Amino acid sequence: MDLMQILQGQLDDNVLGQLSDQIGADKQQTAMAANGIFATLLGGLANNAASEGGLASLSAALDRDHDGSILDDLMGMVGGMVQGNSNQGASALNGAGILGHVLGDRQDVAAQQISQSSGLNMSQVMKLMPILAPIVMGVLGRAKNQGGLDLGGLAGVLMGSAQNAQSGGFGDLIGSVLGGVLGGQQPQPQSGGGLLGNILGGIFGKR
Questions:
Q1: DSSP H/E element including 133
Q2: How many Cβ atoms from other residues are within 10 Å of residue 204's Cβ?
């Protein structure tokens, strides 16, 4: 199960058009930025899930707030968030809260890197991030429910998806964001797992 592919599949032409109109960008740039945001959040979630406590907290949050129902009407969800009048559950759509939990103080670093790779300015990226964050959690929650994933299965899906995002061209982006976890020192990619594997592989290897 590749969460990155599932996430990319959520942004059909209509949703992408709505997002592009909101931030004042063309669809291609918006799609590039969205892919960067998805990859970064998957990397951050995989990093958080690398500890037993972080994984348990993530699983509890999915069970409590993120069952994937927001994916049934993404046009309505995006429109509601943009207008600030969504009638969906506040916790499920708390994009700023999700970003805080997943990326912490690395949100600006992520936005800067995504800005450079997509051509959008920082303000545009910062508008996109809290709109897209609930979609990531919705996809993850639905994957957990439909796949009957236990904690180990959830961690495995996250790790595999983040690794795929890394090998799919987002390795430098994920590494620049996760580098803060290691005191600002970004490890060099190693064969057999790459950058993300170097950061997380040892932890998962001990499970």
A1: helix 122-147
A2: 17
